[in-house]
Specification:
3 domains; 325 residues; six-stranded mixed β-sheet; 17 strands; five-stranded mixed β-sheet; 22% helix; Immunoglobulin-like
Length: 325
């Protein structure tokens, strides 16, 4: 903008001189204010014209930049991919996969910058929260063996693998983890190169979990450790159960919360009897220990138990009352 002003400085000086001559010639005194607006308007017109031309050029450059940027190709078959290693160029995998009897397998591929020191490449397929491993260590190939692995071209640095999904796998979000094992000198190094998430639909009707039994004492005293235990079933299989929890209401009807403000307390089916009171893992019986400390109000406490599946459906609540003495 400074160059713009300097370029017009000569014109401004010239117009001032012309205006002074006009005033002397007409012998006008005290009326410079009548002539100066005309002079100033002329200067403003010149500056405005040049400024408009400058803005036009700037607008054209902006349009060209936006157009060229918008023309960049954006992949539409990738969802939540994450490259954790600079040696990865591309990942190919579905963003959604629907199970059917005729189509239960998809192909995923990963392209590496080079294959130096690479011993093997494989993938794990897990449920997003880590509660279920659908596949572990499926090896990927760059041998052009399309029938077995889905790899189309040999030695093109693109590794592929076929992934079979079962209708027994619960619907929901899954993550593919890509691992590369390298041999450096005489040592093996394992690296996670990338992850990719996709939504899976097992084409089955999803039913909510069902709480079939509540095993909780009806009375408790301060400092006494009691065991809360409930039995849960799911028409889509026990693997479809995502979480089981309870909410607790005090005798005055207010909901109980812990120091972190949490009001949904989990039960466990992990077989850890020492910590949670659960005897057998993955049998559909969820347990947890509970102790009422001194200072809590005595009276009738209300427990509301819930079970949630991986599709987000929640069971009907099971209510139990306990009297604290």
């Amino acid at each position: 903008m400074s160059k713009f002003v300097l370029r017009n400085k000569g014109k401004i000086i010239e117009k001032i001189a012309t205006t002074e001559k006009l005033m002397k010639k007409t012998k006008v005194k005290g009326k410079f204010s009548m002539i100066f607006p005309l002079f100033f308007y002329s200067i403003k017109t010149d500056l405005l014209f040049n400024k408009i031309n400058f803005l036009k050029i700037l607008l054209i450059i902006t349009i060209i930049f936006i157009t060229s940027t918008a023309c960049e190709e954006i992949p539409n078959n990738v969802i939540e991919q994450k490259l954790v290693n600079e040696n990865v160029e591309i990942i190919e995998a579905p963003d959604k996969f629907y199970y059917s009897n005729s189509d239960s397998t998809f192909i995923t591929s990963i392209k590496l910058v080079n294959k130096n020191q690479i011993e093997s490449v494989w993938i794990n397929v897990i449920f997003y929260d880590g509660s279920l491993t659908a596949h572990q260590k499926i090896f990927m190939s760059d041998k052009g063996d399309f029938y077995f692995t889905g790899d189309k071209v040999k030695d093109d640095n693109i590794f592929s693998a076929k992934v079979s999904m079962s209708k027994k796998f619960p619907s929901g979000k899954y993550t593919i983890e890509y691992y590369v094992q390298k041999k450096i000198s005489s040592s093996f190094v394992l690296l996670k190169y990338a992850t990719h998430s996709f939504d899976y639909f097992n084409s089955q009707v999803n039913f909510p979990p069902l709480i079939t039994e509540v095993i909780v004492p009806s009375f408790a005293t301060y400092g006494q450790r009691i065991t809360l235990m409930i039995k849960v079933n799911d028409a889509n299989g026990l693997n479809d159960i995502s979480s089981v929890y309870y909410e607790l209401y005090k005798p005055d009807g207010t909901k109980a919360e812990n120091s972190q403000g949490i009001s949904q307390f989990p039960l466990f089916d992990d077989g850890n009897k020492t910590s949670n009171g659960d005897e057998t893992a993955n049998d559909g019986i969820y347990s947890v220990y509970l102790t009422f400390p001194y200072g809590q109000p005595s009276g009738e406490w209300r427990f509301e138990f819930y079970a949630k599946d991986k599709g987000g459906l929640i069971s009907e609540k099971a209510v139990h009352y306990l009297t604290l003495k």
